[in-house]
Amino acid sequence: MTELQAGQGTQPLDVTRIDARPQRYRDVLIALVAFVLLALLPFIFGSKQLLDFVIRCAAYGLFATSLNLLVGYTGLISFGHGMFFGLGAYGFGLMMQKTGVPIPVAFVATLAMTLVVAVVIGAICVRLKEIYFAFVTLAFQMLIHSTILSWQSLTGGDQGLRGGIPRPPFLGIDLSNHLHLYITSCALLVIGLLLMRQIAQSPFGYTLRMIRDNATRASFIGIDVWRAKLTIFVLAALFAATGGIIMGAVRLRRLSRVCLLDDLGRGHLHQHARRRDNLPRTDGRHGAAADPQRYRYPPDRVSRHRARHRDPVLCHRPAKGPDGLCRRMVRAASRRSRGARAMSAQTRISVVTGGASGIGAACVRELAAAGDLVAVLDRDLAKAQTVAAEVGGKAFAADVADERSVEACAAAIERDCGPVAVLVNSAGIIQVPVRPHDLPMTSWDDVVRVDQRGTYVACVAFARQMIARKRGSIVNIASIAGMRSMPLHAYAPAKAAVIAITECLAAEWGPSGIRVNAVSPGYTLTPALKNAIDRGERDVSALAANAALRRLVDPSEIGRVVAFLASDAASAMTGANVPVDCGWLAGTSWSTYGGLREASG
Hints:
- 58% of the residues lie in helices and 6% in strands.
- The chain is of the alpha/beta class.
- The protein has 2 domains: 21-249, no CATH class; 349-592, Rossmann fold (3-Layer(aba) Sandwich).
- A 7-stranded parallel beta sheet has the order 3-2-1-4-5-6-7, sandwiched between helices.
- The longest helix is centred in the last third of the chain and has 29 residues, at 441-469.
């Protein structure tokens, strides 16, 4: 052994290990400061619009930064990363709707489901390179997209999850409370960003950078490239799903579609239409619009694709022009764009009286599915709380015929929820069909007190603030009993009065920007009627015999008409009474000619 060899053998290499703990402590400190600042934000500004904006930023921020783990650090350009955002939102929403498990359990279960899906998809995709990886991920996204659309019994198809997402309290946290939801979203955002920061600064993060720069060289020095790519693919999917869960915890309007190119696609559609039709820009000039004409707030759903065919403003087109676009309807969309953006800046507040059961509960679910925060007002507070918890709303107790009770409740709703934009008067009681001399006047007074007086009292109580804001919509639930002669000597006159009240208030408050309409249901399969049918007190065939559609009305069908009348889609309707009766009014007189008959070819 030479002297040099001996020296080399006796002197160990001096390798200095870098201590990463100070950097980690600094990151944690920065995260804590950021969380405290975000938590103080609502106490400084107190704006619900700002809180909504930050919550959505938290959801999409996690999605964007998780995509950066793939694209920025690993060089994996994924066109289908949005499927994990959608899986998180749909998985969490379905878990809460179908199982009713606590929110933490639904959160973990959704991430576990996303983990399994990401492992299966990632094991296939990460073996591919560059554009092949991008398009295969896009193919998987479209597969999930098609599954969501076709599995209507579970997902609602292109209508999305309906009925709202229950958010029961856990560990003292009530996500139906706007502040609690905001704090929870900020916590998830800060924790997610901190974890992704630690991943990026860890040895694994530098391994990803090496793979991004030269995957072949990384494999030559012993790095398992496939395993590293799969690992980061799964981690990015979990962070994206967390963003989707946050969006699912918000009062999602409709969770339909899994494509995140909605803004770009819709903006391009309207700019193209403006170029074709030479429509005026928002700045008074001609040509393409300076900003995308969005007439519905994109975060209200996971996303939409093929907006021209699916958006309610554009789907009912009278005729196509030579270029395939309907100019008249595009103009209508352009006129509505600014108003719709203004409405989407804040969640709409709706109140449903008598919302604890029957038609009222159906209206609550439909309005919640449209994205409203619904205040369920009923004499039975326990039932109202049950319905409100189902849709993420709030419950209030009041007797609609008691003026002071309704006034106090209206003030409480304005204070706790926000400005009321929609009032649905569904509170009412029915009577047994008896002869006038067999109907006690106390029963007559009870029906008129609730059905007629209660409707008027609620209209006046909630309209005061609507008039001050120059905006509002009221929908009164009347009945076909108020439009035809029936042996209901208290109920029928009371409902006829509701129709008259609707027309009078529509004319009175129309100049103040308040729309007042009525819906007159026919024989409806409410729980009360179902119980009567089960007891043999009512005959379904007799009830449906004079209806042109030969069936009874489902409460959800009435709820959808109410939601339409309350929306801006019915902005020109006021003082109208809309029968929802399966054609009972149209078919009744046919009984004198032998009854309804089947059409013959």
